[in-house]
Design goal:
The protein is an alpha+beta fold. The chain contains 4 helices and 7 strands, in the order βααβββαβαββ. The chain is 27% helix and 33% strand. It has a 7-stranded mixed beta sheet with strand order 1-2-3-4-5-7-6.
Amino acid sequence: MITFKPITTENYVAAVKLEVAPGQENFVASNCKSLVQAHYEPQFRAQPLGIYDGDTMVGFMMTIEDDDVGPEMKIIMRFMIGAAHQRKGYGRAALLAAFEGWRAENRWKQVGLTYVPTNEAARALYASVGFVEQGIKEEYGGEMLAICPL
């Protein structure tokens, strides 16, 4: 069962130690960079979260709220599953669990994210849970924007 825990002084080291598999480094910023951004860019109201299977942190997700895109869209700014935990269904399970929680809050109507267009594994994962590609956006560093209705 997947759960989410806020990143705090008790678990930030585990989050920083989580890394993607070799060859995936250019697909997502490090968790360390994400934690720095969460602290020093307060305008985004970032929420860094550990993705847990029991007591084991298997991944990391950071969501933000951006007034420029509207109050009804939850944004996944970062999403990764640690190399040792990939290909075990954690990515899909984490996204579906997050959707369930956000639906229960009844605050957001859709979820948005971007990813590197050459990341075929991310493309397949996001499509499998309902994200629809909106096109490559130069304002997001040339990444693909995808949106999923809640």
